[in-house]
Amino acid sequence: MIRLEKRPQPSRAWSMATPLVAVLATMIFGGLLFAALGKPPVEAIRTIFWEPLFGEFSFYYRPQLLVKGAPLVLIAIGLSLGFRAGIWNIGAEGQYIMGAICGAGAGLAFYPAESFLIFPLMVVAGALGGWAWAMIPAVLKTRFGTNEILVSLMLVYVAEQFLASVSLGLLKNPEGFGFPGSRNLQAWDSAHNAELIAGTGMHWGVVAALIAVIFAYVLLNRHMTGYHIRLTGEAPRAARFAGVNPTRLVLFCLGTSGALAGLAGLFEVSGPSGQVSIDFNVGYGFTAIIVAFLGRLHPVGILLAGGLMALTYIGGDIAQSNLQLPAAAIQVFQGMLLFFLLAFDLLTNFRIAIGKPEVA
Amino acid sequence: MDLSAINPVLLIASLMVAATPLLLAAIGELVVEKAGVLNLGVEGMMIVGAIAGFATAVESGSPFLGFIAAAIAGAALSILFAILTQFAQANQVASGLSLTLFGLGLSALMGQSYVGVKPPRMGDIHIPGLSDLPVIGPILFGHDIILYFGIILTAAVWWMLKYSRIGLVLRAVGENHDAAHALGYKVLKIRLAAIMFGGACAGLGGAYISLIRVPQWTEGMTAGIGWIALALVVFASWKPWRALLGAYLFGGVTVVQLNLQAAGVAIPVEYLAMSPYLITILVLVILSADKSSAPAALGRNFHASR
């Protein structure tokens, strides 16, 4: 008979190994899925994981890795703080959109002035936009006890409608021949989030993501607030007795994750995407949830997981053009990854024992 | 703007149609939560039900078979959630989210060749005499059969939870799983059954959107209805009749804003389209003060150590 025995402590070794096991399992089952769609499975997996890094056109794809990975890491770092404390912000997509709108709006107010102050202003406005949007579920939770999961998610749909409204109205390019969407920020030097070193994909968002990783690492390991976050997640009752203020923690976690998501949105519209348009958002806010879990809610883990997830985006694009693999197949692939991760997590907390339990 | 173009009889009749997917999903989730399990994957199960039902109805030509397939698909997806949370002891919030993310991708993959296809129509019932009555006829006696099934299901769940032995055991598992286990009830099996029931209901709700309410297939067409259904369970304080009331309220908001859009009210379309989500938040705020009716073991995993 196979039983599960709870480990006295979670296994550190398995905690490190489960993401790798999950990735392997996803490759196997993803391969089966691709085979079921009539695509060569080994070729498809190789295209997704190998082609962007070492393939013929890797000189083009490697910089893309940073471009796609930066927003994922930036958002996931913020989410991980809350997830650790049992505060579930799943509306990062909305905060990402609002950060982009506020940041771009603040910049466009000064169009066509040229000043080195405009981009920093946009960065601040972007962070504030995301922060303010995340403060709605935070304040409602602390003031009325409203469920932050549902409120933050509802606000994604509200933000999407607002995005449609501003791209057709307030921020619409007056010289855009009636097409929806704002002015192209790439064409305006003061607002353009350009590559810092040409040809590397390294833009300010990447720098911000790296700073966020270091910031989160120091916060969690060396700072009282970080300790409170970990304590609340692992032993909520003990945390209350130790004098942790839950209200402050909710405001801090949701606010930080909102601000980081807002930053990610601003760096995206001022750089790779270039303009605020109805569909500039591609779901980074939701994929970042997978990144946060895959990275074990640990800053360094998230950095690696963000890279891996960016790889599946780019590799998915290549597989789409080379093998006609449908885009939705990659979405299923990413969803599968989270499934397997959660399933294999069993081995971190439980030991599989064979035989009859001893009578105590 | 021409508000006189809005026909109140048609408005109420379409309100009931708009409310049915919400009602089906919410009743399913209500049973799941009564068993102490929080499944945030409703949106994912709905959208998979929507495409499974749509595809089956188109291929077989029978909307009825479509609904059965949708229920099976929703239940099948919910088994994945049950494996994660009940067997692998994974966090319920994370597992539910993964179910939604996976379901959205899976449905997009399944639905590729069905974009723009017209599904077979499910006929409305017609009771001679009753259906021809003015005003009452089109409101009460002129709908499709699934709409009535939703109302009957609400009554059945209410009766089951309140008066039957199964309902009592289900509530016991949801309130205190350790005590229920000590009494000899199979906590995991009961929860598995509840989760699958919830999945089947969500699947039906999804298929109602793609086969009757819209009726066509577009990617991501559930547009947050699964999440509103989750909010509805809180709104209903875990009581079936209040879920019905809530579903009609939200159905009403949706239908009224669509009618206002069509009538050309001076409010921009985007702001009208926001309204169901904003009202959901508002309702959550008003009703969050009282958490006493929530099942005590909601969201906690059970592992029999002894």
Automatic annotation (TrEMBL), chain A:
Coiled coil region boundaries: none
- InterPro entries, alphabetized: ABC_transp_permease (IPR001851)
Q: Name one GO molecular function term.
A: transmembrane transporter activity
Question: Domain of life of the organism in this record?
Answer: Bacteria
**Any stretches that span the bilayer, and where are they?**
68-87, 94-111, 117-140, 149-171, 202-220, 249-267, 325-347
* Swiss-Prot/TrEMBL keywords: Cell membrane, Membrane, Transmembrane, Transmembrane helix
GO cellular component, alphabetical, reads: plasma membrane
Membrane topology, record value: Multi-pass membrane protein
Write down the PANTHER family for this protein, in alphabetical order: ABC TRANSPORTER, PERMEASE PROTEIN (PTHR47089), GUANOSINE ABC TRANSPORTER PERMEASE PROTEIN NUPP (PTHR47089:SF1)
This protein's name: ABC-type uncharacterized transport system, permease component
- The organism named in the record is Leisingera aquaemixtae
Taxonomic path: Bacteria, Pseudomonadati, Pseudomonadota, Alphaproteobacteria, Rhodobacterales
Automatic annotation (TrEMBL), chain B:
According to the lineage, what is the superkingdom?
Bacteria
Q: Where in the cell is it found?
A: Cell membrane
Chief location of this protein within or outside the cell: membrane
Its topology with respect to the membrane?
A: Multi-pass membrane protein
Alphabetized, the UniProt keywords read: Cell membrane, Membrane, Transmembrane, Transmembrane helix
Question: TM spans, by residue?
Answer: 6-25, 37-58, 64-84, 96-115, 135-161, 192-214, 220-238, 245-265, 271-289
Q: Say yes or no: keyword Transmembrane helix present.
A: yes
Q: Please provide an example of a Pfam family that matches this protein in its UniProt record.
A: BPD_transp_2
Q: Which GO terms describe its molecular function?
A: transmembrane transporter activity
Please state the span of the N-terminal signal peptide per the UniProt entry.
Answer: none
Q: Which GO terms describe its cellular component?
A: plasma membrane
Instruction: Output this protein's name.
Output: Urea ABC transporter, permease protein UrtB
Q: Which organism is it from?
A: Leisingera aquaemixtae
